[in-house]
User: What shape does this take?
Amino acid sequence: MDVEEAIRARRTLKVYDPEPVPAATVLELLELAVTAPNHHDTEPWRFVVVGPETIDRLAAAVDDPKLRRSRTAVVVVQQVAADPAVAEEDYAACACAIQNVMLAARGRGLASFWRTPRSLHQPDARALLGLPDAARVVGVVHLGRPRDGFPTAPCERSAVAFTRVLP
Ligand SMILES: Cc1cc2nc3c(=O)[nH]c(=O)nc-3n(C[C@H](O)[C@H](O)[C@H](O)COP(=O)(O)O)c2cc1C
Assistant: This one.
């Protein structure tokens, strides 16, 4: 699958096969995540890969059963800089890293879902994940093979509606 195909085929998926994604595959995805652009090489991203046992513990600790949707997920965390301008750029860099993960996953036949549950901001979740105070949870990226196939509806949006071209 080439890059354009992966971009078009990536769609949020919420129903996963119960088989966890092999650790080696997740690490391949994260190697691609860290190639994302980041201004001044701040490398703001931190990743916590969570498997079935930790997902279950998290879901129970913060009463969020939706965390169990997939049996493998990556909690993407931003190391927040003191300078708000740097922190803003770093958040954007983390978003780029997440998109890399989701596209690379799709290229490997895996689906994904970037979720921003409030539950992960709870102290119990932060403690379980071992997050320091300066860490901002950017999201949890669910990963896995689809239980019922990939979504097939293409994105209907056209850039024309959002674009002005100036000479
Ligand atoms: C920053 C961010 C946060 C998101 N958080 C959630 C979320 O908490 N719950 C959810 O259902 N979807 C979440 N999504 C996924 C979007 O809802 C999804 O991308 C959108 O519906 C478009 O679907 P698509 O990914 O198939 O194009 C989030 C997406 C982004 C970029």
About this structure: Residues 11-12, 114-117, 139, 155 surround flavin mononucleotide (CB under 6 Å). DSSP finds five helices and four strands in the chain. The mean pLDDT is 97.
